[in-house]
Specification:
It is a single chain. The protein is α/β, with parallel strands linked by helices. The chain is built from five helices and seven strands.
Length: 187
């Protein structure tokens, strides 16, 4: 792994975890980068559910998946990530990916919020199968503030260590509130 952007860092762990035939969720589809990665990893026998509340995100993701001939491996949902349980059964999902913040190149006032994000994480943990992975890219700073970051980090600290392994990393010497990657493994 030569690129040290948060997305590449998280993709490295996701790629080493997801297998062909898996069921995965992109909880915040955005421009479809993670959705595309998951579709490649699950292969023809797996499936991905991708969620976002913005039509622009859905359209960008649809175009990306169509151009890479992967749309048949995915179901796109124009609903909040708090509704994931309507589409996947408990303990059936191998990997769930979150990018908290706002859609790049879009209205920054439309962004994830602490209460709904924590509700979605909790729900996602119930959907993860044993040894399932949840990847969290936590963005904060001028546009999104610090309230969501602080709330998510506080919540992660409360997870039962007998049920979950939480690995938190940080770009320690980068200025301007760099994003925080976190991984949760369900034991």
């Amino acid at each position: 792994m030569n690129c040290y952007q948060i997305t590449a860092w998280c993709s490295h762990f996701i790629s080493n975890h997801v297998r062909q035939g898996d069921l995965c969720i992109d909880a915040t589809m955005g421009n479809g980068n993670d959705t595309e990665l998951l579709c490649c990893l699950v292969g023809e026998t797996g499936h991905v559910h991708a969620f976002d509340i913005q039509e622009m995100a859905m359209e960008h993701t649809r175009k990306r998946l169509e151009s890479s001939s992967l749309l048949s491996r995915c179901t796109l949902h124009l609903v909040s990530h708090t509704e994931m349980d309507q589409y996947c059964a408990p303990e059936s999902v191998r990997c769930i990916v979150f990018n908290f913040g706002y859609l790049p190149c879009a209205d920054h006032s439309i962004c994830t919020q602490p209460d709904s994000s924590i509700a979605a994480i909790k729900m996602g943990l119930s959907l993860l199968q044993k040894n399932g992975l949840m990847s969290l890219c936590i963005y904060s700073g001028g546009d999104t503030g610090f309230k969501e970051r602080d709330a998510i980090l506080s919540f992660l600290k409360t997870l039962d260590p007998k049920k979950y392994l939480v690995i938190l990393s940080q770009y320690y010497n980068r200025p301007n509130h760099p994003p925080i990657p976190a991984m949760i493994l369900k034991l």
